Amino acid sequence: MAFAIALERKPESDPAFLFRCEHIITGALRRAAAERVRVIEIDGWFGARWCGFAGTRDGQDVLDLERLRMPPFAFKRVRGERTFARRDRELIERRGGRLHPRARRSGIATLTTDGRDRLFAWYSGGSARQDRAALMVYEMPYEHEHRAWYCGFVRKDGAWHVSETLGIDHPEIEALEHRYHGALELTPPDHNWMPGPPLRAVFDRAYAAWFAEQPALARHLAERLLVELPGQPAALWMLAHAQLGFRKVAASAQALRSIGKLAHVQGRVFVAKAWAQYHGEIGDWRSEEACLREVVQLRPEDMDEWLALAFLLVRQRRLDEAIAILRHATTLPGEPEVAHAHLGFYLRSLGRFDEAIVECEATLAIHPRYRLPARVLRDIRLLGIERSALRAVPDRADPVPDRPDIEGEWMPSPSVWPRYVSARDAADQGDRALARHRVEEILSDDPLQPAARCLWAELCIEMDVDDDVPKWLAALAPLASLPEERERLALLWCDYHEARGDEPAREPYLREFTRTHPDTTPAWIILGGNLARQGKHEEALAIHRHAATLEGDVAEALLNAGLVLRGLGRLEEAEQELVRSLAIDPSVELTQLALRDVRAVLAERKADRSQ
Q1: What does the alpha-carbon distance between residue 566 and residue 345 come to, in Å, rounded to a whole number?
Q2: Tell me: the pLDDT tens digits for 272-328?
């Protein structure tokens, strides 16, 4: 399976144009290291004036390339919306809700994201009946860093050629289309590993459920497969992953042991990686390492597998070995900037600053917007290190700090910064106990240092150690003067209460988020789930229905409303909400299952009444 999106082949669309769009969009996704991309089909050609166009205000067109807004396409021109998400070495279509509202509101619309959406693409539908078409891409890698670009195409002698550009040039388009496509391909599965049709569709549903963090559905479908095909390797593999989702490590190991010996390389790789995950869950790092070393032997040219091994060695504090593996990874096909970036990060941790600078520059030469190397260079400067190599490097310091807890007044002072970096490095390398110890050293000298307090509270919550976290968070409140500082503090309170299963205590913070983010669905959907878990079903229903009127994941809001109504026994209303959700996004398995369940119960009730 190639690492590339697959646009829908419609009779009115020219496959040659779709092919170019697929490669360019996939290249942009890989270059941005984005988690997912939203792709929207627009009926017919659209011009370069749409790039950055946000609508009209007081009778004047608004064009803003600094702060991108929702392109105000009429709803009747929106022919389809799809979301593709990265999963290891492949792209999987995911539910993403509707981006463009059915009825466009007046004024300027915000381009709503839920934190994962960082790449958006609009392309021309109906290219078979026209000789011109367009592709427009919005890149939003960070909150305050946006980029928009546009490509116009014309068809000549059956081929599509770039005729017009805005915000991008021909060499960059060519690099996206060719350099980034096809470097991550999987060996096609054979029948010794995957089930054949029609049961392959059941496995695909189970895989999608596991990817959507629905282990119960994934386990149910895997068990259904095993009833039809006892001992089927891929079904056992899926069952093992689903059991891990319930922390049933013994059941997971039993499923993996049942797979037996496989001849196919892909199956052996998948099983070895599953065993690695199992050993990681139980804390057996040595066995996890053995499994990952087996994986790199089976896939010696796969950079991602070498990176996974390097990161495991880092968690064991075997940095020298990890660095050697990362150096090897930079020579492999794929995304060498990722290996260079982490190599620079860990060299900085060892105090090998000259080498770190070289690796960071190698990263930025490939990917100038990569955040990690910019942060490493900034840290080296703040540490006061003077190196000739560093003086020759332009200041690429990231304008947006990588953690909200060090913005504004909360930024550590230059005297504290080296120790804060050391603590953060330990946390990033998975050594939370060491990170907590280093933060406590900072707090022993400056008990009120806000960034250190935030990091300390975060570590305690992750480690499930109380240690007066509420008292420390309360002491931070008077120091939170900026809105982003207050929001960061509220998020920590939410994390604290969630870790303890205290939904009533989370509620006031979630309500505050709906007040500060009133126009988008995520805050309201999370609040609705919180209320439903407290048994406040009527209020949760009202919240989800309100969320369905906003911009964002309307399909998820309607799905949640349908599930609440199903729990209340109001099946006719539940059916209506679920049908509305599927009309927006028909690909969501959970919505399909819920609707079938509701209709089955309604049919049973009708049959009972007729008797």
Answers
A1: 50
A2: 888 888 788 777 777 888 888 888 888 888 888 899 899 888 877 788 888 999 999
| Residue 581 domain-assigned (yes or no) | yes
Residue type, 60: Q
What pLDDT does 401 receive? Answer: 34
Residues 128 and 214 in one domain: no
What was the pLDDT predicted at 136? Answer: 95
CATH number at residue 492: 1.25.40
- Regarding whether 486 and 373 lie in a shared domain, the answer is no
Higher pLDDT, 290 or 181: 290
Number of domains in the chain: 4
Same-domain pairing of 231 and 320: yes
- In one letter, which amino acid is 456? W
Range of the domain at 413: 402-500
Evaluate whether residue 190 is within a structural domain.
no
State the Cα–Cα distance between residues 16 and 21, nearest whole angstrom.
9
Does 223 have pLDDT greater than 80? Answer: yes
Tokens 């878990």 identify what position? 533
pLDDT interval class at 408 (50, 70, 90): very low
pLDDT of residue 382: 64
> Which contacts qualify for 301-309: CB closer than 8 Å, 24 or more apart?
301/332, 301/333, 302/89, 302/332, 302/334, 303/329, 303/332, 303/333, 303/334, 303/335, 303/336, 303/338, 303/339, 304/88, 304/89, 304/184, 304/334, 306/332, 306/339, 307/338, 307/339, 307/342, 308/276
Tell me the C-alpha to C-alpha distance, in Å, between residue 229 and each of 122, 226, 233, 272: 42, 5, 9, 22
Query: If you average pLDDT over residues 493-510, what whole number do you get?
Result: 82
Assigned domain for 228 exists: yes
In CATH, what number is assigned to the domain containing residue 394? 1.25.40.10
pLDDT, position 185: 31
| 205 and 149 part of one domain | no
What are the start-end ranges of the H helices in 548-570?
554-568
What distances in angstroms separate CA 332 from CA 148, 336, 337, 351, one per listed residue?
31, 7, 11, 26
Does residue 184 form part of some domain? no
Name the nearest CA neighbour of 126 among 59, 65, 45, 186.
Answer: 45
In this prediction, what percent of the chain has a pLDDT beyond 70? 77
What pTM was computed for the model? 0.43
CB 60 within 8 A of CB 169: no
Contacts with 34 (C-beta within 8 Å, 6 or more apart), sequence order: 86, 118, 119, 141
